[in-house]
Amino acid sequence: MPLTDYISSDYVNAANKLKGKKARRRIVAYVESYDDILFWRMALSQFEDETRYFEVMLPSRTSLNKGKKQALLSIMKQGAGSNMMACVDADYDFLIQGETYQSDFMLSNPYVVHTYVYAIENYQCYAPSLHNVCVMATLNDHSIFDFLAFLTEYSRIIFPLFVWSVMLYKKREYSKFCITDFNKVIAVKHSRIQDMMNNVERVRHKVKVKLNDLRRQCPDKKEDYLRTKQSLLQLGVTPETTYLYVQGHHLFDTVVAPTVQTVCDELRREREREIRAKAQHVVQLQNELSAYNKSQSDIASMLKKNFGYTMSAPYQRMLKDIERIINSK
To answer: N or C end: fewer C-beta atoms under 10 angstroms in the chain?
Structure first.
């Protein structure tokens, strides 16, 4: 086969037939970027058996072109089938339900799997899993911060403004309030653990100010707002889980990773105090501190390797989509 930018679906089908009836079927899965490969490999591997296996790859074979559009284009041009799929982040495309060409293609093409939450980073920030991330990073299982309560309250606060963000995005009225504007308002200031909930209250104030501003700018949007809110609720977005649907990189980089870092710093200091208190002499103290420091892990790396979201409702919904594709003929 000549080296083209895409692997033809027909080529994959033909190659599978040439292997014989007992050979494992190869299924190509196009993903957006390098960062997505591990996430989708872990999801798809659950469906590998003696009859099939997956090959997760970037959308272009001849260039460094990456991204969601490229992944969707790869199956658009090559005619996806049960042996080829695209695995992409949902972004706002899931929430606006076909209002743009890309959203419509992502939702209507039977060989596209999307995350349902905004991106894979949102899964990595799944609140019930964050204590375990702290344990992996610090080897200290003392629960000193309630991540679920923190992100639940944060979500409740930003939900009304999130509805505005989705509504104006859906109407392409970006100049009034774009995703970047939304991210600036919902940014969290980071400090000591004791001040975390106070910092969330500061976000509440910023959200309130922006909501009043938008209502003054757009006095005719009340009905649109209520329709958008109802639509989001029907899609599974709740005031308590809004954090799963905001821009993933922003959530990861400016909200969750710094919060986890703050908690882990305190857990490490706690463990070091314990070592100092129990050490019987200087040499033992130095050896224990050295061993403990070497056993710790980087916070961002631990979050990216966090798979504690697998029982969440959006992830389980995504797995059902994968199962539907591989069982199609």
So the answer is: C
Q: What beta strand segments (E) does the chain contain?
A: 25-31, 52-57, 84-88, 112-114
Residue 137 near residue 264 (C-beta atoms within 8 A): yes
Q: What residues have CB less than 8 Å from 188, skipping those under 6 apart?
A: 154, 199, 200, 203, 254, 255, 258, 259
pTM greater than 0.85 (yes/no): yes
Sign of CA dihedral 146, 149, 153, 158: positive
Residue-wise DSSP of 116-172: SSS-HHHHHT-GGGHHHHHHHHHS-------HHHHHHHHHHHHHHHHHHHHHHHHTT
Q: What is the mean pLDDT of residues 198-225?
A: 95
Q: Which residue has the tokens 């504690």?
A: 308
Contacts with 100 (C-beta within 8 Å, 6 or more apart), sequence order: 93
Query: How would you classify residue 92: left for phi > 0, otherwise alpha for psi between -120 and 50, otherwise beta?
Result: alpha
**What amino acid is encoded at 33 in this protein?**
S
Contact predicate 276/155, CB 8 Å: no
H or E element in which residue 113 lies: strand 112-114
236 forms beta bridges with none
The pLDDT tens digits of the residues spanning 27-61 come to 999 999 999 999 999 999 999 999 999 999 998 66
Q: Which pLDDT score is estimated for 192?
A: 82
Token pair 């389980």: residue:
316
DSSP 8-state secondary structure symbol assigned to residue 114:
E
The owner of tokens 């080897």 is: 139
Q: Which residue has the tokens 């894979």?
A: 120
Buried b (16+ CB within 10 A) or exposed e, 258-278: bbbbbbbebbbeebbeebeee
Q: Cβ atoms within 10 A of the Cβ of 257, count?
A: 21
State the amino acid at position 100 in one-letter form: T
Cα dihedral sign, 93-94-99-100? positive
228 near 160, Cβ under 8 Å? no
Contacts of 126 (CB under 8 A, 6+ apart): 244, 306, 308, 309, 312
